[in-house]
């Protein structure tokens, strides 16, 4: 870790602002079962960023600092702000990003510091696209920048996970890894490695318009697996096989078997109780418009559907069909070169 740019009392040498950034993610397959030890594959969504701006705040304050309300960092429509640090009024809201930032201040030996963080999101919240992990990652990076710290990927992961565990009860860590990944990842048991992609295709992501509830969905799945340990073992084995076969198809550039793996994974997620009629409608619309496969992405019970399509015109056709079937927004992500 770099030496701090701070002097005596933990205050920055020159007061200012810190800036941080992270992005959303789409899980190709492996959501939910990844919480129970299977691998998962995720794509970063750099086109859906969160930008965070951190300011030094005042202990005891419950209001925002002036630059946040009046300056160029004024809150955007999908933005929010929070305070973090010791000595805040008891009524100050607690959130995953706040928990992550407070753990960072503790680890960086800045226990007396109070910060205000303003978040500007382009990721829709509660749609299975990893907004809570991206918020926490961007916030930690902004506070690190404010205090002249650098955060290595493993430390960032641990800090974001503190926030995710608070927000979701039990989080696998796939969102925390993908929020700062610069390409598709293979995630397993807390670690991520870059994934080789030999497929020129597209992922069309469609928002059902219905908020998902990650904590509720994760609890629902845990309940089902706990109630029937026999079928739990079978389901988790099947999930691992599907993620592995998707990995092989992605590397070999084979869209049809990858599409089939997505459809089988959707069946499995239905069995786990996190599907919904709106998700089924969008999956059907994507297949009828020529998608190789489609499934929910993220926690489900609403949220988003992800379809694997041909690049170019194929993606546009599926995207239009999804909007025609009720999707409130769609995004198209190439399977290769997700970074700009
Ligand atoms: O819906 P999101 O973006 O919070 O993604 C949740 C992914 C799960 O696999 C359901 C939970 C997890 O911790 O991996």
C-alpha Rg (nearest Å): 20 Å
Distinct small molecules bound, one entry per kind: (3R)-3-hydroxy-3-methyl-5-(phosphonooxy)pentanoic acid
Question: Biggest β-sheet, characterized?
Answer: 6 strands, antiparallel
β-strand percent reads: 15-25%
Q: Terminal Cα separation, in Å? A: 29 Å
The number of distinct β-strands equals 12
Helix content: 25-40%
The computed structural class is alpha+beta
> Low-confidence stretches at least 5 residues in length (pLDDT < 50)?
1-14, 62-73
pLDDT averaged residue by residue: 90
Shape from CA axes? Answer: globular
Query: What's the total helix number?
Result: 10
The helix/strand order is: EEEEHEHEHHHEEEHHHHEEHE
What does this structure look like?
The chain has 340 residues and is α+β, with helices and mostly antiparallel strands. 39% of the residues lie in helices and 23% in strands. The protein has ten helices and twelve strands. Strands 3, 4, 5, 6, 7 and 8 form a six-stranded antiparallel β-sheet that branches. A four-stranded antiparallel β-sheet has the order 10-11-9-12. Helix 2 packs across helix 4 and helix 6 packs across helix 7. It starts with 5 loop residues before the first strand and ends in a 6-residue tail after the last strand. The N terminus is likely disordered. The structure holds (3R)-3-hydroxy-3-methyl-5-(phosphonooxy)pentanoic acid.
């Amino acid at each position: 870790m770099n030496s701090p740019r701070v002097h005596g009392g933990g205050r920055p040498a020159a007061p200012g602002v810190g800036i941080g950034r992270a992005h959303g993610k789409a899980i190709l397959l492996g959501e939910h079962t990844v919480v129970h030890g299977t691998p998962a594959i995720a794509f970063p969504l750099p086109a859906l960023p969160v930008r965070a701006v951190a300011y030094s705040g005042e202990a005891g304050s419950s209001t925002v600092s002036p630059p946040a309300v009046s300056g160029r960092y004024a809150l955007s429509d999908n933005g929010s702000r929070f305070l973090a640090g010791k000595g805040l009024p008891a009524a100050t809201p607690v959130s995953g990003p706040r928990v992550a930032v407070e753990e960072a201040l503790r680890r960086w030996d800045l226990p007396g510091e109070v910060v205000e963080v303003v978040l500007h999101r382009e990721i829709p919240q509660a749609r299975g696209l990893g907004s809570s992990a991206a918020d926490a990652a961007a916030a930690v990076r902004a506070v690190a920048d404010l205090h002249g710290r650098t955060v290595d990927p493993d430390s960032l992961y641990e800090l974001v996970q503190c926030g995710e565990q608070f927000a979701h009860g039990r989080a696998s860590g796939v969102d925390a890894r993908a929020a700062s990944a610069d390409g598709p990842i293979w995630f397993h048991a807390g670690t991520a490695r870059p994934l080789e992609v030999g497929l020129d295709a597209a992922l069309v992501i469609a928002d059902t318009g219905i908020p998902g509830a990650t904590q509720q969905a994760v609890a629902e799945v845990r309940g089902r697996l706990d109630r029937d340990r026999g079928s739990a073992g079978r389901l988790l084995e099947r999930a691992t096989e599907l993620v592995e076969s998707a990995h092989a198809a992605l590397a070999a550039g084979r869209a049809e078997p990858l599409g089939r793996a997505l459809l089988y994974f959707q069946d499995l997620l239905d069995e786990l109780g996190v599907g919904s009629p709106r998700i089924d409608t969008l999956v059907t619309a994507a297949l009828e418009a020529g998608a190789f496969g489609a499934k929910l992405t993220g926690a489900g019970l609403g949220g988003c559907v992800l379809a694997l399509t041909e690049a170019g015109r194929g993606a546009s056709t599926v995207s239009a069909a999804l909007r025609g079937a009720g999707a409130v927004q769609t995004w198209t992500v190439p399977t290769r070169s997700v970074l700009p």
